[in-house]
Design brief:
The chain is α/β, with parallel strands linked by helices. The strands form 2 sheets. The chain has a 5-stranded mixed beta sheet. Strands 1-2 form a two-stranded parallel sheet.
């Protein structure tokens, strides 16, 4: 039999397992985000991987490595003053004649369905440093976003 048709094991042809991607840039967190990250690490560390099959244990350890890295690199940001759009502010804005409110938070804390967007998102970057009443460019459109109101995010 030709060497070209031999296979040592099935593992040779499996997809490689990569680490979970770490978002680029700084790991800014709010006090709430830091609490959530710590809680996530504690919950994952409490899991007994000995009872899991090998693949599930590897996946669990990969997720734990991600959260430990995020905790180790977390940069707790000071509370914003609320005078301008900044990390840790809640912003009410108007875009396409619709008014919405979002909190600008860290990457791991972001959840657009709950009204929290990452400071690294295009919308947050466009609004940064703007003040109430100001209009900012967004998505290639001049003055597309009108900042209606800015407040400091209150921790829950």
């Amino acid at each position: 039999m030709s060497v070209a048709f031999r296979r040592e094991s099935d593992d040779e042809h499996m997809e490689p397992k990569f680490e979970l991607p770490i978002p680029a840039g700084p790991n800014w967190v709010t006090a709430r985000g830091l609490r959530l990250t710590r809680a996530q690490v504690e919950a994952l560390e409490a899991v007994d991987t000995g009872a899991m099959d090998e693949e599930s244990a590897k996946k669990h350890k990969r997720v734990l490595r991600y959260w430990r890295t995020r905790l180790a690199t977390a940069e707790l940001r000071p509370v914003a003053d609320g005078e301008a759009v900044a990390f840790g502010t809640r912003v009410t804005y108007r875009l396409n004649r619709q008014e919405k409110t979002v909190a600008i938070v860290g990457d791991d804390e972001a959840n657009p369905h709950e009204g929290r967007i990452s400071f690294s998102s295009p919308l947050a970057r466009a609004m940064m440093a703007a003040e109430a009443g100001e209009r900012v460019d967004f998505a290639g459109k001049p003055e597309a976003v009108e900042i209606m109101e800015i407040a400091v995010v209150r921790e829950d």
